[in-house]
Amino acid sequence: MYRPLKCLLSFLAFLLAFNAFSQSSYKLSGKVLADDFSPLYNASVYISGFSIGTSTDSLGQFQLGLSAGINEVSFSYLGYRSVALKLFLSHDTIIEVQMKTDFQLGEVIIADSKKLKAAEHDATGVITLRKENFISLPALMGENDPIRAVQMQPGIQSGNEGSRGIFVRGGSPDQNQILIDGAPVYNPSHLYGFLSVFNADAIDKIDVYKDNYPAQFGGRLGSVMDIGADAGNNNHIKGSFSLGILTSRIHIEGPLDKNHSTTFSLSLRACYAGLFTSPISKIQYKKAGYNGDVAYYFGDVNAKLAHHFGANDEVDFTYFSNNDLYSFTKKSDTYQPGTQVSSEYIEKVNWANYVASFGWNHRFNDKWKTHNSVSYSQYIINSQLSNHYQENSSYYYQSLYDSKTTSYIRDVSYKNDTKFETGKMQTIRLGAGVTGLIFETGKGAETTINSYYGNSAASFKSGLINSISAFVYAGDEVKPSDKWLINGGVYGKSYTVQGKTFLSLLPRLNVVYSPVKNFSLRTSASGLSQDLHLLTTSTVNSNILNDYWVPATAVAKPETGWNFSGGMIQKLPLNFEWSVDGFYRLMNNLIDYKEGANYSSLNLPWYDQIVTGGKGRAYGLETYVARNYGRVTGSIAYTLAWSERQFTDLNSGNYFPYKYDRRHNIATQLNFIINKHFEIGASWVYGSGNRMTLPLQSYNTWVAAYYHDYNVQNGSKQPENGEQVTVYTGKNEYRLPAYHHLDISMTYKKKVKKLEHQFNLSIYNVYNHYNIFEVYSDYRIAADGSRVIVYKQLSLFPILPSISYGIKFGA
Amino acid sequence: MKKILLVILLFGLTICGCEKDFSVSQQTSAKKMVINSLFNNGGPVVVYLTDSYLASTQGNINSINDARMELYEDNVLKEVMKYTPSDSVNTFGAYKSILFPKAGKNYSIKVTEPVYGVSTASDAVPLPASITTQQLVQYGDSATHSNDVIVDLGIKDDGSTENYYRINVWIGGQQWFLNGTDTVTQPYFEARGPQMLTTVVDTVRDGLFLLFSDKNFNGQTKDLKMKFDKLDPHSFTSLSIFVDFYTASKSDYEYQQTLSTYRSTSSSANSEPVHVFSNVQNGYGIFAAEQYQGVVFNIK
């Protein structure tokens, strides 16, 4: 299977290299700050002449769609003097509004969005990425993937080449909660990590929480990626269209009515790589002496509809889905005198996310707002395998094996989130919700027809596991003085599964102290729990494709943990900033495969192959330096970390490194706007290699001695060595080679009349380093004819240039 | 034309890349001595001494014959064990003691070899279990036409320690059959895995033995009922069931348990690695003790 997968990915890489695009938008976004530059939460932003407005988030950020030309925008916040601005907009604009308490006029900075390239890090530890951050990174084969932008932040890393998950501070991918408009997304990637499922056209922004867990978030041990889908502008219909050899995208957005109170956004993306990989692979396989092909297709839909009922009510509906299909076929027929042999191998895998959410925002008054949402999320994977062999000679022999399997997760949730401003320095947040989870970890059927062993048919089922969890939370953000910000809260949850209920009460505390202007110290402690587990294998044939999600059960209890974090952030002159953070995370009730477990076993359920009650700890230090505004922008993030696990029945009960234990992780990026036409960018990432368990030595047991003796006594010249035992390293003791690559991009833009032409050249993995996607064992024949085991690495992406050409209109 | 050339260039780059496989630098590890010895009170201590080889190669058994092997009983040197290269049973080569191990005693070996240095291992011979009952429960059932034999072995477990037991069963006797019109008898001998009618836990069943712990009857008297099927009463002129009843040390149990898991899973590349238990310092293998008790059920 590996060879076809490898070639398929290469075809995708090749075909993606040519991709044309075009896009346009008119947005006003920015921040509302207090006089000490701290963000103002829930500040009101109104557009005069329209009955619409918005309020700032916890980072003081907002975003609105505006008409071209003059717009009157008002900003207000209790205890501060209102600010009214007249803005003439001809393109996307970012502003910072500093409000004053002493009746001085606010200070407004009009920023050029084209000069903002780095992610925003606020004093509380929240990282915000916007569309411009996604597209400023060098493209991977023509695609600007939002997840790659997230992986450039400190403490966040990819698992490996082509990894589908993100790994935050020594945690596993399941410990990260990925939400799109509040609905969970269980599988964030296409083709196991080739691309993320998130289409940059459809994403407005991503907030990443890894230091500070506000009370409204629960359910995972690691981090929260809160993704906001683009609701579209309320000015006029506009969109973009791209047509590529491999993928095509269409995006359209705008108002639906004359009052501009209803807006929509629709993004479609399709990958039809199979149209190319199928015929090309057929030719390749034909040369190899058999018939076959490999094909891959996927499609994405992102849609959002929003409607304002006056200034106090807004509803929105979000739909997101992706559907992937991978197939591999190999057939051969051989004829020799008196013998005819035919074989056929067919593998088809289909996986999909279906996510829908409905939200209602209601503003009772300036101090009291509430948000209600219901969501449905399903992740499903179906696989089908046929392996047929028939031999017709002096006898007839056939072996026909067919199997079908299905597994899925279904999640239905309701949530209420209510905010009260009890004073100018305090905001209380209350909420409650309920989630029903249906988890099918694997069911299916297999049939075997064998001339020697007879026929058999069996169905297997790991078991449908239903669970329900209910939660309440309360948070209080207090600002007792200009120097202090305290956010405390508690998240209470009950999780019921298989007749057993687990209760947890999880305190949260985040304290920010700013002794001087532009400098903050921060510390936080968070109690966390999650109702999912991820099983990872440590075998030689180890790759991320084999990681397996399962629910918490009465035996595999919900994971619990604590996250402690502390550090500082300082804004420096010339738009520089730097931060240093330390973290320590404790994890309990972890699960892992027990020794001898076989993840590919169809008839042995996962819960019979695990050890439970594991502990984990992750700790480290991360630093970040960035210049986030100007012609030259960039960032350097370095993380030094340890991540370990401990189980009574594994590794003699001693702590062992986690599979994704990365001692060093570096992510750098640089962007330089040379002039109004040219812009260049570069990024370099480095990570210590992943961990695995490697065979070291072999020996023969006492049983071997008896076999040996027996054979010698019976005159055998080549006595068998009998039973061999392999000695392995300690669990995950071996570290694979480091992962690193340098990417560069060059962009040329030229505006002709109303159209902006854009030409981009990106090169991924400039120095052609072969990063490990997978390690597998193989054999080679030694000079004496004996078989010798060798271990090999499979690499996916060599140096990959990509070229794109686009037209932007309406800017 | 330029575009076509560019396409060819990019195609070449990507295909070139996908064909690249590289050897992972396998961690080099030193060869070590391998000690293999499962001993009991029923015979001398026999130690097979070999060396290990790189896991990625298909190594041959290489017997080590130049080592000095000291055998200690309760930390007192009792004997320097001799290498027996031409032993009619052990052509493989082994070090054999004169001493027979005793119940409750701790035995250790110290192996000194010019190349590999010093390896040590030790284990204690468990005390024997007290056998309280030994009876035939059933042999055949005319009502159900059953050919089953059910026997009961009662033992009193020592509650002061954690105990492990291993059972091997042999069935022997004289079986008769018709050769034309003549009735002929011939010896019958068969190794059987016992089918336990009594619940035992922490079981390891590998081949023809059953290993279990005293976890569910610690310190109690336990009737171990075992069933053996397909023993037609009319087919035998004589029939006995020989039960080799071992009290195993914890090292022995862990070794057998992990080795059994290893045997059943190591053939699949998708299986998690199994670390076979070893109590050898600076080496590999096992040096573990058992207490042997033979029990015979004369059925017919």
Provide structural commentary:
The complex is a heterodimer of chains A (811) and B (300). Chain A is mainly beta and 811 residues long. Chain A has two domains: 2-26 and 118-694 and 729-809, Maltoporin, Chain A, CATH 2.40.170; 27-115, Carboxypeptidase-like, regulatory domain (Immunoglobulin-like), CATH 2.60.40.1120. Helix content of chain A is 7%, strand content 60%. Chain A has a 25-stranded mixed beta sheet that branches. Chain B is globular and about 70 Å long. Chain B starts with a helix and ends with a strand.
- Summarize the main sheet of chain A: 25 strands, mixed
Number of continuous helical runs of chain B: 2
Structural class of chain B: mainly beta
Level-2 CATH architecture of the largest domain in chain B: Sandwich
User: Uncertain spans of chain B, ≥5 residues at pLDDT below 50?
Assistant: 1-20
The CATH topology assignment of the largest domain in chain B is: Immunoglobulin-like
CATH class of the largest domain in chain B: Mainly Beta
Quaternary state of the chains: heterodimer
Q: Output the CATH class name of the largest domain in chain A.
A: Mainly Beta
